């Protein structure tokens, strides 16, 4: 370590601006992974368009949920926000500062503010380190002095996430899956971040443990004024935890809206299909509800369908869907959708979409 | 006991009957009691859902039903009767002849349960020819038929593909085709959709339901997802710490469950069919280690109502008792207390 010790003392949560102020703004975000051939002379033969133009904003103290099936680009989006991946194109603005292409060195102090919770509590903790050193690592890496020493700070954190502070010297294998996820959360919280990107934070956990961790995340948000971007495939977990929800399909955001508006009146046919595919834990509604069954699988992101990417599996698709890409249009206050023929939409929706797409 | 035995002989034998199944694994750290006294029965054409968290013994049970435990490492006792034949006491050879033909299994992860070196077709053909004395051509035609049946497009071409050329959902379909290739009468699906996306999950669940109706087979579906069992099962068995804590008809389990653990499972789950709740109601603590299962009721350390029993939960193991026809619960609480707690405390919060 060559840097001079920083004398910041971990204080109470640093206010992330007034409640409701835009904390993170993402526009036109793209990530294309090149596909190459040839061993010596590599030439690019194509690109996997993992994320292909995604826009959203997250306000301080709020939670954005990103849902979609595997391969829709939600994890890649999360990794770009935390700058673990370099975006191909687009802009990421955090607290009014463009961080899209800042260098690793410039990014480092910012990592205090942007942290990540990982999916797998088994592979995201170093098995050879004690809990104390895992949770204390952020203090060492960022040269943050703590009021009563790192040990005390770590024990306080363990207490906050509901672990026994005495377990400071234990190793990850001595903990259960749910407890390990708590260790990961304690590490994330160490530097009092403003924004936390949680990538499938509960999907590896048992049902009863899942509920504990979801409640913990909500408590921490209230206590430390955290802002979350929660990435998950489980629509019911996302509904429970989010204020705003974005639905992704093949690298595109197809619908973005306030939680209630989106779950009560989904407009994009893909969202409608996703919601109707979730099994309902109530045997009395079995067979009673209308279901939409999508045929086949998600097409390959190497060669996605033109225009609306969902038109190959959509039951409402018409000719225009394969020719003109539907733009994101705000059809209800706080509820945008990219579809030529939205469901649950106001009556003039189709003409408004057509106008926005320039085909009216 | 003798009275019960006498009635059991008179009643027509169920298609599958498991009696006091115990599967223990001796390890350096102690004896792991993965399944500790499990009994249930299942008829043809019915679906049983086994629900529980990881480590509750549900997968060990399913491997036990198929006779897949290595006798050197596992101590299996009790009885499993499948269509008049006993499995636990049978030799490995006898069980092998039943496996595939009488009973078969759909595993959770189709990529790791298929051989990456052989084509999908070759793997189905092998299974089919083991039990049927037919030529390769006939078996191949049968494999193509099966792939077609489970909804794989262009089955005559895809039969020569390798597992890695299939997507996750198609692999699971191929796996189902393989499991069904010999028309088994008992189909065990161990977390068949856990690795799949929700739209593909819906396709696979529909497929299992349709095929069951077509073949009139008995299906056991093992899962942690209460939504999946609610859609598919006729009966539900809730497992905890290697034992059955509640068993009953699907309507009973969802609408008037009586075990605090079942309440906990229902409260832990965020639901799309209800108004958004402020808080989930998790179960405190974590599941017990199967080496040191608590002395009395395995759930008592996590149970919010254990103190209502004046310590009985900690010392005495509750028996599985029938509380209404077909509904059995293993809990020390008084029936009246349970009804009151469910009506007044638990259900309003769900």
From TrEMBL, chain A:
Gene3D superfamilies membership: P-loop containing nucleotide triphosphate hydrolases
Keyword Aminoacyl-tRNA synthetase: no
Keywords: ATP-binding, Nucleotide-binding, Transport
SUPFAM superfamilies for the chain: P-loop containing nucleoside triphosphate hydrolases (SSF52540)
Pfam families: ABC_tran, oligo_HPY
Keyword Nucleotide-binding: yes
Designated name of the protein: ABC transporter domain-containing protein
Organism, scientific name: Actinoallomurus iriomotensis
GO molecular function: ATP binding; ATP hydrolysis activity
Domain ABC transporter, chain residue ranges per copy: 35-275
SMART domains reported for this sequence: AAA
UniProtKB/TrEMBL annotation, chain B:
Keywords, alphabetical: ATP-binding, Cell membrane, Membrane, Nucleotide-binding, Transport
UniProt-recorded Gene Ontology molecular function terms: ATP binding; ATP hydrolysis activity
PROSITE patterns, A to Z: ABC_TRANSPORTER_1 (PS00211), ABC_TRANSPORTER_2 (PS50893)
Ranges for domain ABC transporter: 18-266
KW Transport (keyword) present: yes
Subcellular localization(s) per the UniProt record: Cell membrane
SUPFAM superfamilies per the UniProt record, alphabetical: P-loop containing nucleoside triphosphate hydrolases
Extent of the signal sequence: none
Gene Ontology cellular component list: plasma membrane
A GO BP annotation: peptide transport
UniProt xrefs under CDD domains: ABC_NikE_OppD_transporters
Main location: membrane
Membrane topology: Peripheral membrane protein
InterPro entries: AAA+_ATPase (IPR003593), ABC_Ni/Peptide_Import (IPR050388), ABC_transporter-like_ATP-bd (IPR003439), ABC_transporter-like_CS (IPR017871), Oligopep_ABC_C (IPR013563), P-loop_NTPase (IPR027417)
NCBIfam families from the UniProt entry: oligo_HPY (TIGR01727)
Family under the similarity heading: Belongs to the ABC transporter superfamily.
Protein name in the entry: Dipeptide/oligopeptide/nickel ABC transporter ATP-binding protein
Gene source species: Actinoallomurus iriomotensis
